[in-house]
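haha ok so turns out i had the wrong file open the whole time. this is the CORRECT one, sorry everyone. sequence first:
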Amino acid sequence: MDIDPQYLIRKAQEARQRAYAPYSNYQVGAALLGANGVVYTGCNVENAAFAECICAERTAVAKAVSDGERRFAAIAVVTRDGGSPCGACRQVLNEFAPGMLVIIADAQGEVREPGGICTAAELLPHHFGPRHLQTPSGP
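then structure:
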């Protein structure tokens, strides 16, 4: 599958404009490319009870999964300053696609280096995953 980072960045920039971030004023947009070729967007949605907030990346994953997609090729994440996904988002991305391409850009669409383009597994090495929940076989 061909991945067009600039297209994904533009879609993430559009999603970022819909963010609900009245407390932090840190709007985040994400555009997740499913293996089916569909792009699922997400934005962060804050809440006065901060623990109830959901990040853009997890919003995009939830939208994709609720539509039946569970395989992902790439995600673009756009913040005002090229901030990297949080730990919870890194864990969720790894759950579905450790090898997916992660593109991190600022509000102007510029990819930040170092680490502006990497895999989900590179964002969270030694992540907890399904293999840890396997029950040992044998007596």
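The chain has four helices and five strands.
again sry for the mixup
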